[in-house]
Write a structure and sequence with these properties.
Helix content is about 0%, strand content about 55%. The chain is built from no helices and 29 strands. β8 and β9 form a beta hairpin. The radius of gyration is 19 Å and the shape is globular.
C-alpha cells in the first residue's frame, strides 16, 4: 500500500525581508517529522492562507486583496486570479462549506468582506461588506473593533466573526443566493479577553474560541432552536498556560489535529505550545502539556498528521522549530535544527491525491 504523501503551505510576510515570495511549499517527511522546501510562490505579505473544502484551491491574503490558486497534483500552486477586498489588508480568510463564498477578516479596518467564488475556483465580485462598530475597553489596542477570524458553522448556516477589539464573536446568517449577511447573535466574551481564533469540532456541535489577552480557550456547545436561531452554551473555560508562566503572554494559534482528537494552541511571551486531548463524547478539553518551543512568538503551531510530531512557527525569531511528541509521557522533544523562514504566519498540511 502506497504511503500517504503531504505537503505543507506556510504563509509569510515579505515586507522588510527583501523577498517577494510570501508562500512557501514544503514536502512533509511524516516519519522524521521534518519539512523540506520544494517551492515558493511570489505574493506580497501573505497574512493567512486557507484551502477550499473541496481541496482543489488555495486562497491567500495579499496586500492587494485576495488571491486564488489551483493546487496541482504535486502540491504546487498555479495562480488563478486576484481580487480587491475594497479595504485594508486582511488577516484571515475562509470559505463556506460549498465553496461558493470567500470571507475575509479585516483587523485594521474592522471589516468583514464576502466575495463570490466561481466554479473554477476564481474569486468573483464582493457580495457584502460589514464594518464592526463600537468602543472597547483598552485605549491602546481594544479601543475599537478588530476582526481576527471569520468561520462558518459546519452546517453552513452561520458565519462567526471573532472581534478581539470588542471582546465578542458576532454571528451572521448567510444568504446563499446573494451572499449577504444578517446579524442574528453575539457570543460575548469576558472583558479584555480578546477572542482571536475559533474552530469547530468534526460534527460541528462544539466551538473552541481562543482568547489572546486572557490566555484561555472557551468551549461552547452549538445548536439551533425551534425558531432557527443559533444557540451557544458555554461548557468549559481552560487556560493555555501552566500555573507558572512568563508575564505578558498572549495566546495565538488554534489548530485541530487531522483526526480531531487533539487541539493545539500557543503562547507568545511564554513562548510555549499547549496540547489538549478532546473528549469525543462531550468535546471537553484536557490539557496534556504546555512546554517551550525554542523561539519567540509562536504565531502558529500544529501537529503533523500522525500526531507524533509538531512544528512551531516562530514569528519573531524567523524560524520553524520541530518536536517529537509523546502524548503518553506528556512530552515534546526537539527534533533536529530549526529551519529559517522570515516572519511565518500560518501553516496548513495538505494530503496529496494519489
Amino acid at each position: 500500500m502506497e504511503k500517504e504523501k503531504y505537503v505543507a503551505y506556510v504563509s509569510t510576510y515579505t515586507s522588510g525581508n527583501k523577498s517577494s515570495f510570501g508562500i512557501k511549499i514544503y514536502d512533509v517527511d511524516l516519519e522524521e517529522g521534518r519539512l523540506y522546501e520544494k517551492d515558493q510562490v511570489e505574493i506580497t505579505n501573505s497574512s493567512y492562507v486557507t484551502i477550499s473544502h473541496n481541496e482543489k484551491y488555495l486562497y491567500s491574503i495579499t496586500d492587494f486583496g485576495v488571491e486564488s490558486y489551483k493546487i496541482l497534483e504535486d502540491g504546487g500552486l498555479s495562480v488563478i486570479n486576484h481580487a480587491s477586498i475594497n479595504g485594508m489588508r486582511g488577516c484571515y480568510l475562509s470559505t463556506d462549506y460549498e465553496d461558493k463564498f470567500l470571507f475575509v477578516a479585516g483587523y485594521h479596518d474592522a471589516k468583514v468582506t464576502v466575495l463570490r467564488v466561481r466554479e473554477d475556483g476564481s474569486i468573483g465580485e464582493i457580495t457584502d461588506e460589514i464594518f464592526h462598530k463600537g468602543l472597547g475597553s483598552i485605549a491602546e489596542r481594544t479601543f475599537r473593533p478588530h476582526i481576527n477570524c471569520v468561520k462558518m458553522t459546519r452546517d453552513n448556516k452561520f458565519l462567526c466573526a471573532a472581534d478581539l477589539g470588542m471582546d465578542h464573536v458576532i454571528v451572521y446568517e448567510l444568504n446563499h443566493l446573494n451572499g449577504r449577511l444578517r446579524q442574528v447573535d453575539i457570543i460575548r466574551s469576558e472583558l479584555e479577553s480578546a477572542p482571536r481564533h475559533l474552530k469547530f469540532s468534526r460534527d460541528g456541535k462544539i466551538v473552541y474560541i481562543v482568547h489572546e489577552l486572557k490566555n484561555y480557550i472557551d468551549v461552547y456547545r452549538y445548536s439551533i432552536d425551534e425558531h432557527g436561531i443559533p444557540v451557544f452554551d458555554k461548557i468549559q473555560n481552560i487556560s493555555t498556560l501552566n500555573t507558572y508562566h512568563a508575564g505578558g503572554s498572549a495566546a495565538s494559534a488554534l489548530n485541530l489535529s487531522e483526526d480531531f482528537k487533539y487541539l493545539c494552541s500557543s503562547n507568545a511571551g511564554d513562548n510555549s505550545v499547549v496540547l489538549y486531548s478532546i473528549d469525543q463524547e462531550t468535546g471537553l478539553l484536557s490539557k496534556i502539556l504546555c512546554l517551550p518551543i525554542s523561539g519567540d512568538y509562536p504565531k502558529d503551531a500544529a501537529l503533523f498528521p500522525d500526531n507524533k510530531h509538531l512544528v512551531s512557527l516562530n514569528h519573531e525569531t524567523n524560524t520553524m522549530t520541530f518536536f517529537n511528541v509523546d502524548m503518553e509521557k506528556k512530552t515534546i522533544v526537539m527534533n533536529g535544527k530549526a529551519i529559517p523562514v522570515a516572519q511565518p504566519n500560518c501553516i496548513i498540511f495538505y494530503k496529496l491525491r494519489s
